[in-house]
């Protein structure tokens, strides 16, 4: 793992695990000191996190953890509830044993992360499962849109989700894969809709911010 990737994963993990809450400032100088790298290196990582909507960078103000509003959280999940089930019939046109094996491997990885209480990894893996599934539909326009919605959902889950938001409480992805293998389109659409609605209902909207974060203690091991 490269140094940039290590820093990216550490900051992302801190955001997802609420050690860096929504709205928390991310000063380049303090982060570079904590990680023992240049401010340029930190800036690259913050820019990557900004592209994924986890961080906001404002001119002359620096970076801070994005704080999605209650309305944004609802709109993002409602959009996914509307679109993702509708892609199931097109997806089934491309579904085969190879796809099934690939997604079952992803689902297994999700379960392992959940069992190890790796919340940041769980959120990343569940997002990947959904946008990779959308890709199978063959509709690249909608697939790219869903990928962006999944990134934004990851931030929302990081800010307002619970462990139940990405765990089996919202439904095991292997249940969906069983339905796809059996070509049960209507049931698969219902499962996806229920799954996403459960994720939405699991959110706990909270705007707590702590500006007195000790980055040295947080990131120095």
Portion in strands: under 5%
Alpha carbon gap, first and last residue: 17 Å
Q: Note the total helix count.
A: 11
Assembly category: single chain
Assign the CATH class of the largest domain.
Mainly Alpha
Give the total of beta strands: 3
CATH-derived architecture of the largest domain = Up-down Bundle
What would you report as the Rg, rounded to the nearest angstrom?
A: 18 Å
Q: Summarize the helix and strand pattern as letters.
A: HEHHEEHHHHHHHH
**Tally of separate domains:** 2
Poorly predicted regions are none
InterPro entries: GntR_C, TF_FadR/GntR_C, Tscrpt_reg_HTH_GntR, WH-like_DNA-bd_sf, WH_DNA-bd_sf
GO molecular function, one term: DNA-binding transcription factor activity
Protein name: GntR family transcriptional regulator
Keywords: DNA-binding, Transcription, Transcription regulation
């Amino acid at each position: 793992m490269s140094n940039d990737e290590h820093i990216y994963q550490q900051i992302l993990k801190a955001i997802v695990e609420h050690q860096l809450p929504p709205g928390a400032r991310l000063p380049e100088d303090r982060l570079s000191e904590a990680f023992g790298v240049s401010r340029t290196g930190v800036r690259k990582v913050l820019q990557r996190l900004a592209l994924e909507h986890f961080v906001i960078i404002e001119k002359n103000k620096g970076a801070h953890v994005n704080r999605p509003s209650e309305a944004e959280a609802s709109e993002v999940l409602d959009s996914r509830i509307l679109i993702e089930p509708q892609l199931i019939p097109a997806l089934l046109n491309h579904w085969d044993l190879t796809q099934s094996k690939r997604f079952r491997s992803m689902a297994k990885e999700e379960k392992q992360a959940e069992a190890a209480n790796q919340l940041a990894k769980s959120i990343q893996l569940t997002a990947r499962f959904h946008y990779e599934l959308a890709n199978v539909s063959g509709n690249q326009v909608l697939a790219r849109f869903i990928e962006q919605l999944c990134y934004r959902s990851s931030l929302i889950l990081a800010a307002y989700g619970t462990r139940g938001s990405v765990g089996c409480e919202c439904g095991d992805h292997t249940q969906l894969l069983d339905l796809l293998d059996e070509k049960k389109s209507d049931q698969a659409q219902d499962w996806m809709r229920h799954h996403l609605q459960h994720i939405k209902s699991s959110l706990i909207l909270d705007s707590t911010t702590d500006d007195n974060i000790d980055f040295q203690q947080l990131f120095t091991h």
